[in-house]
């Protein structure tokens, strides 16, 4: 029993030892084990230097405009006077043909007559008459224009009469002010005259002296009558009489003199009063005149109603627009009915014109057996020989119009096309000693690869020939940039372009490497490198390749010898 227990304890001990050994192995070698499961990446530091964003490719020289020699009727070729590669001039005979049987011309003439008749009949069917409506619109438009003129003239006249009313109001107020002033002056002078007329001369002292002298004389006279004291009063009476007469004269003189002063003052006031009367009369006449003129001006001003004139503009405009709208509605209704007919008319007219031109050409060509070149150039191909019968619209020959210049076409990716601009000049890499210039004429969608590629057309000048191959290089000139990475380091998603940098994180078991996203903008790129800006500062360790797809934040391992 004890032996069995001992064996069990030994087994437990062995299991425990094995477990501890495994834990130690996992502890010390877990980093190494995990590294084998991580994506292996290559990385390098960013650099600085020059980047030349160039687009390179090979293009063949073509004539700017190839010209095809075609016939519109079937004719037998009697003689061919040209061969591929021949230089020809305008007016040169190219082919000799057999006689025309006229069948093509007769058919073309019949087709033209039929098409033209159908076109004329259809034209009469779909030509509605809007003459009456157009005339009503014309009259309404004239009424509207007249309302605008009346409104403009009314504003001018209203402004003129308003200015006149303001001027006359001021002049009337001035005339009224003069009337008021002269009226006040007249009242003042009238009161002054009344006061003067009511005044009596002040001769109080002279009156008292006269009374005293008179009383003295009368007292002496009374005493003499009584014979008082038996005296002789004749001398005293004579003296008293002289004194009294003298006082009487003094009183009379004083009264006359002072009355003369008052009369003079009255005369002066009367003269002033007469003058004021004249001024007041004249001022009243002027006030009456200005009042009448002001009343007339206000009547003229009031007769001009800007509001009514503006209302007339609105009325005539609405009438005009109503007629236009009615006509447009009618035309719209008619056009919906005539839509198909108009399409047919357009098609029929093109057909009539095309057949008319064909009749002219067949009439001219049927009268001659010679095919004459209308252009100058080089024969690139001849598709018939003597004895052949031509087929309508099949080219007998193709001529390259060398006098109109040469071109070359290069298909590039959409990304490459962004580095090219119209007017750029390309560098020609495979031609030396001859001056040839290739200038970008246009950049359009490539019809053979729409949406993915662009077709760059170059104007070619210099000593070239049709079919010559040119190695072209075009794009930005070489420039210096602070931060350059390999093209393989550039990635792009819906947020834009970015690179992945290696970020080192320390741990008790050693360094760990994590891929970190850095958003960037590509400033320039060539076949191998890209100049970038943005989050990259120029000192990052950039991932260039990886054995597996990686995402930002993933742990990676560097290739052997690729650690910092």
Question: Would you kindly provide a written description of the structure presented here, covering whatever features stand out?
Answer:
- The protein has 564 residues and is α+β, with helices and mostly antiparallel strands.
- The chain has four domains: 1-37; 38-53 and 478-558, conserved putative lor/sdh protein from methanococcus maripaludis s2 fold; 54-99 and 375-475, RNA polymerase II/Efflux pump adaptor protein, barrel-sandwich hybrid domain (OB fold (Dihydrolipoamide Acetyltransferase, E2P), Beta Barrel), CATH 2.40.50.100; 135-304, Helix Hairpins (Orthogonal Bundle).
- It contains seven helices and 22 strands.
- The mean pLDDT is 77.
| Number of helices, counting only DSSP H or I runs of 4 residues or more | 7
Helix/strand-derived class?
A: alpha+beta
Secondary-structure element sequence?
HEEEEEEEHHHHHEEEEHEEEEEEEEEEE
The name CATH uses for the topology of the largest domain is: Helix Hairpins
In helices, the fraction of residues equals 40-55%
CATH C-level class of the largest domain is Mainly Alpha
Strand content: 25-35%
| Terminal residue distance | 64 Å
| Molecular shape | elongated
Oligomer: single chain
| Shape-level CATH architecture of the largest domain | Orthogonal Bundle
Low-confidence stretches: none
- Give the radius of gyration: 64 Å
The main β sheet shows up as: 9 strands, mixed
Question: What is the number of E strands?
Answer: 22
Count of structural domains = 4
User: What would the average pLDDT be, to the nearest integer?
Assistant: 77
């Amino acid at each position: 029993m004890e032996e069995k227990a001992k064996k069990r304890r030994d087994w437990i001990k062995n299991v425990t030892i094995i477990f501890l050994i495994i834990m130690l192995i996992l502890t010390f070698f877990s980093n190494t084990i995990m590294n084998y499961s991580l994506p292996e990446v290559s990385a390098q530091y960013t650099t600085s230097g020059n980047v030349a964003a160039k687009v390179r490719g090979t293009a063949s020289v073509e004539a700017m405009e190839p010209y095809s020699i075609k016939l519109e009727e079937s004719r037998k070729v009697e003689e061919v006077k040209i061969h591929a590669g021949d230089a020809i001039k305008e007016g040169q005979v190219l082919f000799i043909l057999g006689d025309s049987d006229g069948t093509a011309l007769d058919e073309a003439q019949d087709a033209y007559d039929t098409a033209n008749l159908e076109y004329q009949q259809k034209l009469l069917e779909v030509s509605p008459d809007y003459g009456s409506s157009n005339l009503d619109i014309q009259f309404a438009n004239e009424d509207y224009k007249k309302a605008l003129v009346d409104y403009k003239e009314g504003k001018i006249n209203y402004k003129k009469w308003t200015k006149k009313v303001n001027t006359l109001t001021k002049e009337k107020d001035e005339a009224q002010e003069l009337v008021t002033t002269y009226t006040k002056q007249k009242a003042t002078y009238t009161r002054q005259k009344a006061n003067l007329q009511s005044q009596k001369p002040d001769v109080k002292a002279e009156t008292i002296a006269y009374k005293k002298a008179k009383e003295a004389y009368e007292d002496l006279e009374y005493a003499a009558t009584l014979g008082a004291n038996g005296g002789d009063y004749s001398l005293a009476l004579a003296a008293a009489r002289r004194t009294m007469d003298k006082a009487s004269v003094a009183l009379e003189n004083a009264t006359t003199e002072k009355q003369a002063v008052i009369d003079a003052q009255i005369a002066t006031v009367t003269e002033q009063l007469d003058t004021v009367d004249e001024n007041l009369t004249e001022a009243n006449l002027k006030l009456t005149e200005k009042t009448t003129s002001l009343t007339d001006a206000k009547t003229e001003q009031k007769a001009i109603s800007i509001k009514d004139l503006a209302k007339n503009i609105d009325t005539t405009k609405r009438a005009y627009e109503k007629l236009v709208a009615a006509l447009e509605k009618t035309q719209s209704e008619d056009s919906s009915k005539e839509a198909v007919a108009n399409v047919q008319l357009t098609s029929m007219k093109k057909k009539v014109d095309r057949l008319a031109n064909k009749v002219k050409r067949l009439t001219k060509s049927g009268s001659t057996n010679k095919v004459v070149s209308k252009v100058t150039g080089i024969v690139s191909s001849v598709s018939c020989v003597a004895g052949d019968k031509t087929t309508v619209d099949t080219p007998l020959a193709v001529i390259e119009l060398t006098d109109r210049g040469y071109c070359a076409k290069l298909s590039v990716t959409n990304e490459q096309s962004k580095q090219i601009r119209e007017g750029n000049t390309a560098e020609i890499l495979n031609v030396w000693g001859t001056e040839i210039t290739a200038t970008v004429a246009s950049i359009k969608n490539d019809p053979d690869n729409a949406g993915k590629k662009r077709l760059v057309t170059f104007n070619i000048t210099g000593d070239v020939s049709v079919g010559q191959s040119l190695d072209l290089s075009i794009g930005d000139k070489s420039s210096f940039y602070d931060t350059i990475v390999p093209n393989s380091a550039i990635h792009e998603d819906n947020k834009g372009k970015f690179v992945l940098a290696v970020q080192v994180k320390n741990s008790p078991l050693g360094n760990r490497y994590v891929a970190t996203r850095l958003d960037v903008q590509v400033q320039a790129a060539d076949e191998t490198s890209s100049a970038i800006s943005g989050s990259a500062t120029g000192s990052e360790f950039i991932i260039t390749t990886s054995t597996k797809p990686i995402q930002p934040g993933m742990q990676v391992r560097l290739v052997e010898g690729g650690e910092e």
